[in-house]
Design goal:
This protein folds into 2 domains: about 350 residues, Alpha-Beta Barrel (TIM Barrel); about 50 residues, no CATH class. The protein is α/β, with parallel strands linked by helices and about 425 residues long. The chain has 16 helices and 12 strands. The strands form 3 sheets. It has an 8-stranded parallel barrel with strand order 3-4-5-6-8-10-11-12, surrounded by 5 helices. The two termini are about 45 Å apart.
Length: about 425
């Protein structure tokens, strides 16, 4: 039985770039084959339970603007209604995956026992919905930043009782993700950091965070969870400094605590910008280390200094992002999650559908542009030409030499290199041919 929330909105179909229908796909055709694979299987779209259904339209300066039938989100009846509406949207969009935090899908009970009871109840309810839906779970995670108990962190909290509550919470969320057949489990921080070093033992907190993540990996193997464990870099949101600041920081952390072969990264465009990077940079760093797992495809407003979580609308940026995804071999267990929310003035159910349509179309255009660049090979050839000197036997031998030997060669051969153009403008113009 329909909830009535999306009344009057039909299933979204692909109608092509010439369509004037605002609720039709112009570029996302799930069955279109790109580089030998269906577009749906490349992109692996997921809808975010939190921003699509749990978010109430607030911002740092104002509260609720949305008035949904499941607000306030304080009991199981409304939690189940929210799940019913969610699966109606998944069906309308034909989206293959969803993602969730525990706080999105169950009401806060104020105790671990209460939260466990409601989480188990809603997990069973969602699993029942999945039996008649094509939409699967891309990943689950625990919200360990919203409730006041997490104000000084979760695994990094100075209070060991909070660490214990966090460990039990993650266990319950891993169990729920496993029961839903999730493809990944994400550790999503937020308050794993500090406000001031005056009251922070940074080394101890990092050690506790590393031990916590090792416990998560151990539990994954204990229960036979076949998905990937992911961590999500996110800077300054909301802590002054967070330990999982960016891709490079996370990779160093994982290597320090012996987790580099067990954990990959879930990267978000908005967080990349807050860290002072481009999304393409974060993806390239993770791919270079074999740690690119999944992505949250949202954007920030470049005139705002906080994470605005908007649906993607910049095709050139998206094309360069998928260029690195495809170049690294594409997603295995990961996918493209829309950690994106409507603007506070976009109140209608139709806006929620339109936001996802626009994001999916932009990603489809970006994917096709990225594939065309890879198939053309222009960027790869430019890289090969620029680093060709390192393919010579002399250059390879130099890397296994020492400073004295290299200096003797420079003197003997009169080595005096002249700079060569990096051809940046030419390469930027090349990319623009495809986007």
């Amino acid at each position: 039985m329909s909830t009535g929330f999306f009344d009057g909105i039909s299933k979204v179909a692909y109608e092509g770039p010439n369509s004037d229908n605002p609720l039709a796909f112009k570029h996302y055709n799930p069955d279109e084959v790109v580089m030998g694979k269906r577009m749906e299987d490349h992109l692996r779209f997921a809808a975010a339970w939190w921003h699509s259904f749990a978010w109430e339209g607030g911002d740092p300066f104002g509260g609720l603007t949305f008035e949904r039938p499941w607000h306030p989100q304080d009991n199981m009846e409304r939690a189940k209604l929210k799940a019913d509406v969610a699966f109606e949207m998944f069906d309308i969009l034909n989206v293959p995956f969803f993602c969730w935090h525990d706080a999105d899908i169950r009401p806060e009970q104020g105790s671990y026992e209460g939260n466990l009871r409601t989480l188990e109840e809603i997990t069973d309810y969602i699993c029942g919905k999945m039996e008649t839906s094509k939409t699967k779970c891309l990943w689950g995670t625990a919200n360990m930043f919203s409730h006041r108990r997490w104000m000084a962190g979760a695994s990094t909290n100075p209070d060991p009782e909070v660490f214990a509550f966090a460990a039990a919470t993650v266990k319950s969320c891993m169990d729920a993700t496993h029961k839903m057949g999730g493809a990944n489990y994400v550790l999503w921080g937020g308050r794993e950091g500090y406000e001031t070093l005056l009251n922070t033992d940074l080394g101890q907190e990092l050690d506790h965070m590393g031990r916590f993540l090792n416990m998560v990996v151990d539990y994954k193997h204990k229960i036979g969870f076949k998905g990937t464990i992911l961590v999500e870099p996110k800077p300054q949101e909301p802590s002054k400094h967070q330990y999982d600041y960016d891709a490079a920081t996370c990779i160093g952390f994982l290597r320090k605590y012996g987790l580099e072969n067990e954990v990959k990264l879930n990267l978000e465009q908005g967080h990349a910008i807050l860290a002072g990077h481009s999304f393409e940079h974060e993806l390239a760093v993770a791919a270079a280390e074999g740690m690119l797992g999944s992505i949250d495809m949202n954007r920030n407003d470049y005139q705002s200094g906080w994470d605005t979580d908007q649906f993607p609308n910049n095709v050139p940026e998206t094309a360069l992002a998928y260029y690195h995804v495809l170049k690294s071999g594409g997603f295995s267990t990961g996918g493209t999650n829309f950690d994106s929310k409507l603007r506070r003035q976009s109140l209608d159910a139709e806006d929620l559908i339109a936001g996802h349509i626009g994001g999916m179309d932009v990603c489809a255009r970006g994917l096709k542009a990225a594939a065309a660049m890879l198939e053309d090979g222009g960027l790869e050839k430019a890289l090969s030409d620029r680093y060709a000197g390192w393919e010579t036997e002399g250059a390879k031998a130099m890397l296994n030499s020492d400073l004295d030997s290299i200096t003797q060669r420079v003197l003997a051969e009169g080595v005096n290199p002249q700079p060569r153009s990096g051809r940046q403008e030419i390469l930027e113009n090349y990319v623009n041919k495809f986007v």
